[in-house]
User: Which sequence fits this backbone?
């Protein structure tokens, strides 16, 4: 069996994802739950496998324990290979120096030896914070056809949102003429998806140069891509059409979950040709009670629903007791909603209990947006958690003596 | 004390409808399980890491389900899961022509396998019972009492002459005096065998020598009942839920019992003793606007657009619009189209019920539709 792989994928999973606040206090962003039984990283990993890429390095740094455990030996994604497969790559101590990953480019720089083991022609760089289905193999084909040094996947965004992204300007052939990171006055609507295909030799050349530059932040978007453009390398934008969502904020994470619902969901999980794989445990089947009402929702194993669940996404082992109402919300694993409690427009992290007759959020969503409740909390009965707030241990103390409690 | 378990996967064909295409051990049960999952999980939860499965007929689906044993943490370098393929009988006129016919004969043929194993205690068990038996406690008792054999029993009302159970008679100290079945049974509350026992390997091999000398054939009468006269056999009484399945009506009834909170607590929610099974990569269940689901167990991968009541839906079942599914068991990938009414129906895998059909059985005689059926 040949040990050479045409393509190696490197997945940047070290980011903290600070705009997800409480959700990423103890876990890295790619390990955040999504869609009832997935974690964000399942999407790029499944895309790799479905695209025929079977050598994947996952670069971890921030809170890696859960992510390491989750990826394990890669069995769920069929990435437990004798040669290749998935491997987590934490920062390490070398003979002459040791360093944290200083930036996205430095993280790849420090793992060039890993890439070299497979002697690949191409390296795909991915980030672990987007929800999308994408056939990387088609993009690599395009990269080959253009004889490019680097191909950047782009997604057409509304002009008013373009200043949140890295924006590409291209000529008629698709060749990138200009790249601006979060421009104030965007000149194009082609936003970088954080998916790059590099020809390996070019990538290494610019990584080594970047590392030698003490003023560089060692970041792909800020340093490596502009340097390559400046040097006149052949760089192309690869237009992607389909579902793609940056889930870097609570609002967008909630929206992406809501996109799974409905008669014609924007993101259809059930696709036999492009399965999204995940690591699951064997939990008992979900039980829907005598007086329950579950509508326009997705629910997974281990759940017990005796109340009302509408427009919501429930992860494994969630319990909704009699008379409780959950609407327009995302509940992570083993959340319990006690009798008579009401949960509206909220994201609730793992193992939290919402006490009896508690109200979280407002039925119309309120003006302040999605309510976020941290993990392992026990919200005492009858309190009211206002919409748009972020509830953690400290904030919880302030709530135990409510002045305007639900029934006070 | 170290323990190896030997399971009889060929045993039992009391539900011919379901075992036509599979062994009883791999009969689908409770949305996502196969019957063998209960026994196998009980063993693994007791820390047993060496399990051999003796196959007989139709074992392809069973092997597919078990795979390498990884889901039960039995993919081990040492011990782990062994599947013993079936072999020809050496007894009677059918010698060398037909497959072996009894569990006891199967056991005789596994003698070399057992002898070469390093463990000193053997658990022998059928794998078509539904329970969450604390095998760890049974083994601890077995060791503490120093018994030669400890058999799991369950106390229940039996009718005289019940052909589906074996009664274990014991004295006040738990020592077994007799094991009997059939016409010998009188009605009353009795300890019935759960068809699982732990036995010291030395005693088992002695018993097997007697068996082969006398050409015995019956595990209950020839091994247990005869052995109890000679050795120290004891009972271990299980107090939780326990069921056997002896007919399609019983399969239906045992399935519906899972809708009871109490039963699910005793079966699935015992701390430290989860029921493990092969995990598939299904999407979460999707309850569409306009669906109404009441008192039902639903597996992942289902899409529900209509009404479902008092039913058990396995993975990937689709229930169409304006359709009513009541008191039904729909196995994997059953599709029920729009405007269908179904009551007391069991559909096997990949059945299709076309638009507008009306199907009804009765609790005592559920209507069964075989695999790939198209109505």
Assistant:
């Amino acid at each position: 069996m040949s040990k050479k792989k045409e393509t190696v994928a490197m997945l940047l999973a070290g980011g903290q994802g600070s705009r997800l606040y409480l959700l990423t206090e103890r876990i890295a962003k790619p390990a955040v739950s999504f869609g009832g039984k997935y974690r964000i990283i399942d999407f790029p990993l499944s895309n790799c496998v479905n695209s025929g890429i079977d050598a994947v390095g996952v670069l971890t740094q921030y809170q890696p324990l859960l992510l390491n455990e989750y990826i394990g030996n890669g069995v769920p994604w069929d990435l437990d290979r004798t040669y290749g497969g998935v491997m987590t790559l934490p920062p390490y101590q070398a003979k002459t120096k040791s360093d944290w990953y200083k930036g996205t480019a430095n993280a790849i720089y420090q793992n060039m030896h890993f890439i070299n083991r497979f002697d690949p022609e191409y390296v795909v760089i991915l980030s672990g914070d987007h929800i999308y289905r994408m056939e990387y193999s088609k993009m690599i084909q395009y990269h080959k056809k253009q004889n490019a040094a680097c191909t950047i996947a782009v997604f057409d965004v509304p002009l008013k949102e373009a200043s949140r992204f890295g924006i590409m300007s291209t000529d008629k052939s698709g060749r990138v003429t200009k790249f601006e990171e979060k421009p104030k006055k965007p000149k194009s609507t082609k936003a970088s998806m954080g998916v790059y295909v590099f020809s390996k030799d070019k990538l290494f050349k610019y990584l080594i140069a970047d590392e030698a530059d003490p003023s560089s932040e060692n970041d792909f978007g800020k340093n490596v891509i502009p340097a390559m453009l400046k040097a006149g390398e052949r760089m192309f934008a690869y237009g992607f059409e389909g579902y793609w969502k940056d889930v870097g904020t609570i609002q967008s994470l909630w929206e992406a979950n809501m996109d799974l619902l409905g008669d014609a969901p924007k993101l259809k999980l059930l696709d036999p040709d492009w399965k999204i794989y995940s690591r699951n445990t064997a939990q008992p089947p979900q039980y829907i009670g005598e007086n329950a009402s579950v509508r326009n929702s997705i629910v997974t194993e281990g759940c017990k629903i005796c109340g009302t669940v509408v427009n919501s996404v429930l992860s494994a082992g969630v319990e909704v007791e009699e008379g409780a109402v959950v609407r327009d919300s995302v509940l992570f694993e083993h959340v319990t909603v006690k009798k008579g409690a009401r949960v509206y427009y909220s994201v609730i992290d793992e193992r939290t209990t919402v006490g009896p007759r508690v109200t979280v959020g407002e039925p119309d969503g309120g003006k302040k947006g999605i309510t976020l409740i941290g993990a392992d909390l026990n919200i005492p009965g009858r309190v009211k958690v206002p919409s748009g707030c972020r509830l953690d241990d400290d904030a919880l103390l302030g709530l135990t003596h409510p002045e305007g409690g639900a029934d006070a | 004390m170290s323990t190896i378990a030997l399971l009889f996967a060929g045993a039992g064909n009391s539900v011919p409808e379901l075992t036509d295409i599979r062994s009883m051990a791999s009969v689908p049960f409770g949305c996502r399980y196969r019957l063998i999952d209960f026994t196998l999980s009980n063993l693994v939860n007791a820390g047993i890491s060496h399990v051999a499965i003796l196959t007989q007929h139709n074992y392809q689906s069973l092997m597919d389900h078990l795979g390498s044993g990884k889901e039960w943490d039995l993919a081990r370098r040492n011990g782990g899961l062994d599947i013993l393929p079936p072999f020809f009988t050496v007894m009677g006129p059918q010698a060398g022509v037909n497959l072996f016919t009894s569990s006891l004969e199967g056991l005789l043929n596994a003698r070399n396998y057992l002898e070469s194993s390093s463990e000193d205690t053997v658990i022998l068990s059928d794998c078509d019972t539904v329970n969450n038996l604390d095998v760890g406690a049974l083994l601890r008792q077995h060791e503490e009492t120093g018994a030669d054999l400890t058999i799991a029993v369950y106390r229940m009302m039996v009718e005289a002459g019940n052909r589906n159970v074996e009664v274990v008679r014991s004295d006040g100290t738990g020592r077994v005096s007799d094991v009997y079945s059939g016409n010998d049974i009188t009605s009353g509350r009795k300890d019935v065998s759960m068809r699982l026992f732990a036995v010291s390997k030395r005693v088992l091999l002695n018993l097997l020598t007697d068996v082969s000398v006398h050409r015995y054939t019956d595990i209950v009468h020839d091994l247990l009942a005869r052995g109890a006269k000679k050795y120290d056999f004891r009972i271990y009484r299980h107090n939780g839920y326990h069921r056997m399945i002896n007919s399609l009506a019983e399969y239906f009834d045992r399935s519906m019992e899972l809708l009871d909170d109490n039963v699910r607590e005793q079966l699935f929610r015992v701390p430290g003793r989860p029921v493990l099974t092969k995990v598939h990569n299904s999407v979460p269940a999707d309850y569409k606007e306009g669906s109404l689901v009441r008192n039902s167990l639903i597996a992942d991968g289902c899409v529900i657009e209509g009404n479902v009541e008092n039913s058990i839906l396995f993975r990937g079942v689709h229930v169409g619009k304006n359709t009513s599914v009541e008191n039904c068991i729909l196995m994997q990938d059953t599709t029920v189209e729009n405007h269908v009414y179904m009551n007391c129906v069991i559909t096997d895998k990949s059945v299709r019920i076309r638009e507008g059909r009306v199907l009804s059985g009765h609790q005592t005689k559920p209507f069964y539709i075989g695999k790939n059926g198209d109505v």
Notes: The mean pLDDT of chain B is 92.
